[in-house]
Amino acid sequence: MNAIPSVKLIDGKATSARVLAEVREEVLALREHGIQPGLAVVLVGSDPASQVYVRNKVLRAEEVGIRSLEHKLPADTGESALLQLIAELNDDPAVNGILVQLPLPGHIDENRVLQAIDPLKDVDGFHSENVGGLSQGRDVLTPCTPAGCMRLLHDTCGDLSGKHAVVIGRSNIVGKPMAALLLKAHCTVTVVHSRSANLRELCRQADIVVAAVGKPRLVDASWLKPGAVVIDVGINRIDEDGRSKLVGDVDFDSALAQAAAITPVPGGVGPMTIAYLMKNTLAAARLQRAGATAE
Ligand code: NAD
């Protein structure tokens, strides 16, 4: 029997559907004023996983009424050609959001490309202007995965003020912005990573655990205090029982014995990421409109 019988599954699929419905409603309202937000998605090369991600983003954009503009470039595209495209997209008033699908081929400097995107069109929130703004607690375009995690946490816990959150992982894409968002929500935040000592003990003190590591089922019940809320960002493909499957960084079955609420993998954080990309595109369109009216 579970120590906490009323474990709550945090349903990212259902929440992302609500977020997308909210975005769609706002996009339709804008379109009545003759404005249609546009998202440019840039893919360099033909990595199969990246192709699937790009296709899903384009489909989702169309579903919510956002115009999507796909730019598929060959794998041997030079950095200067890519920077030229970014410059054109920055200047194009029909483009409100620019997403460059990562990873880029090795001969292209990823940082230089991300820094070339207009911060007001940076729907991934990776430009240093937005990273700095987030760490100052300003309202800026914020990386989609941590933004989606925050929505799940607010919907599950309400006010997060004073809660102790442990973030496992310190990547620029998930761990660090997640920590900044939790701080902004008045949590006490501990970030642990591959060099941290006493990981399990630190985790056991947490009201909220966010695992963004990339290690299948690293976190089990022994890492959790009873009643912890667990957000599992990890997506790991493993072979088990003769078949390939996706699992998170949390051992879901074990964690159920301790957690008050937990996200499944798949169906937890994953769908929220794409929903927040749409939300960011809408936010970017509004920011650019506000900027244009202020000039
Ligand atoms: P990353 O490899 O950039 O960073 C992993 C972090 O985990 C590093 O900071 C590292 O220090 C830490 N780490 C590694 N081993 C550790 C250990 N044994 N104990 C504690 N910390 C350890 O990865 P990322 O881009 O942050 O992604 C993390 C996971 O989240 C991956 O599984 C990735 O596929 C997944 N992800 C999911 C989504 C989504 O939409 N659900 C989005 C982005 C990433």
Task: Detail the topology: elements first, then pairings.
Elements: E1 8-9, H1 12-32, E2 38-44, H2 48-63, E3 67-73, H3 79-91, E4 97-100, H4 110-116, H5 128-135, H6 144-157, E5 164-168, H7 175-184, E6 188-192, H8 199-203, E7 208-211, E8 229-232, E9 236-240, E10 243-247, H9 252-255, E11 261-262, H10 269-294
Parallel strand pairs: 1-11, 2-3, 2-4, 5-6, 5-7, 7-8, 8-11
Antiparallel strand pairs: 9-10
Helix pairs in contact: 1-10, 2-10, 6-7, 6-10
Fold and architecture overview:
- The protein folds into 2 domains: 34-118, 3-Layer(aba) Sandwich (Rossmann fold); 143-270, NAD(P)-binding Rossmann-like Domain (Rossmann fold, 3-Layer(aba) Sandwich), CATH 3.40.50.720.
- The chain has 295 residues and is an alpha/beta fold.
- Mean pLDDT is 95; it is low at 1-5.
- The chain has helices at 12-32, 48-63, 79-91, 110-116, 128-135, 144-157, 175-184, 199-203, 252-255, 269-294, and strands spanning 8-9, 38-44, 67-73, 97-100, 164-168, 188-192, 208-211, 229-232, 236-240, 243-247, 261-262.
- Helix 2 (48-63) packs across helix 10 (269-294), helix 6 (144-157) crosses helix 7 (175-184) and helix 6 (144-157) packs across helix 10.
- The protein has a 6-stranded parallel beta sheet with strand order 1-11-8-7-5-6. The chain has a 3-stranded parallel beta sheet with strand order 3-2-4, with helices on both faces. A two-stranded antiparallel ribbon has the order 9-10.
- The radius of gyration is 20 Å and the shape is globular.
- The termini are far apart.
- It contains 10 helices and 11 strands.
- Helices cover 42% and strands 17% of the residues.
- Residues 145, 168-171, 173-175, 192-194, 199, 212-215, 233-236, 269-270, 273 line the site of nicotinamide-adenine-dinucleotide (NAD).
